[in-house]
Amino acid sequence: MATTTTTTTQTTVKSRKTVATGKTKQVEFPDIQTIRDAIPKDCFVPSTARSLSYVARDLILASALVYLAVTFIPTIENPIARYSAWMVYGWAQGLVCTGIWILAHEAGHGSFSVHPRLNDFVGWALHSSLGVPYFSWKFSHHRHHRFTSHMEKDMVFVPATKQDRKAGIHTLFLDPEIVEDAPIVNLIQLIAHQLAGWQMYMMFNISSGKDSKQRTEKSWLRQSHFEPTSAVFRPSEALYIALADLGLFLVGCGLYYASTLVGWAMVGWLYFVPYMWWNHWLIAMYVFLKFPRPIDKIFWPMHFVASC
């Protein structure tokens, strides 16, 4: 005897007033669960082998670029050509490191594999190699997604209110309402974001909502993503923050050891120039992708390159 199963599709009904006719009509939008039910179940199960293959691919690419740079660039006699080659290397390595950062990002979201410990190990290793405190970022980033666009609880990208906006170096010490759309002010803010925006957020928790911390704390040190007992985190997360700091310490030791072998100048070319490039892509893609200001449109062609 055949059994018939009936699935009820839930929809959210909203009213929309058309501009042309001025009449109101009902428009049906499926809710989140309806959308999820329409997607094959296996799409929600990440392949551990495939994810690890992406990690291997990017690490091989990064290692190959380092080998080629160390082997051939110092042999270029013409200084202009040699510095140009280093710039090309930094740009290319920055793209690869951006891919590595995204893999660690997915690990932090739990979409790298179905194994939580593997996700955290991969995320910790990859993010640490890029100078990012993995667990610190993971905890605050999850709360950012939970309270996205909340004017008080969002962890990042909270715009300043009229009461918060004050004249300062970022507005050339002029009234913010007068100069906020001025190209020169936008340019100064853009350069500051590109060079130090991410670092300032991790160090001082800037741009976060007033009610985003776990407790009230005025000291900037106690609001840092590097401090295990920071007000940004819960007491139960302190050990993980310390592990994130340990990862950065190990990477720092590795860079120091490399400097004893090839010198700090070479380490600067090999690591810190690509660091500034992936930092650029991080800020450009995640902060300016929505183009809130006209000057940000200069990054539009770069987004396609970074996505390759």
From TrEMBL:
Keywords: Membrane, Transmembrane, Transmembrane helix. It comes from the Eukaryota. The chain crosses the membrane at residues 59-77, 83-104, 238-257, 269-289. Residues 85-283 form the Fatty acid desaturase domain. GO terms for molecular function: oxidoreductase activity. The keyword Ribosomal protein does not apply. GO terms for biological process: lipid metabolic process. This is Putative Bifunctional D12/D15 fatty acid desaturase. It comes from [Torrubiella] hemipterigena.
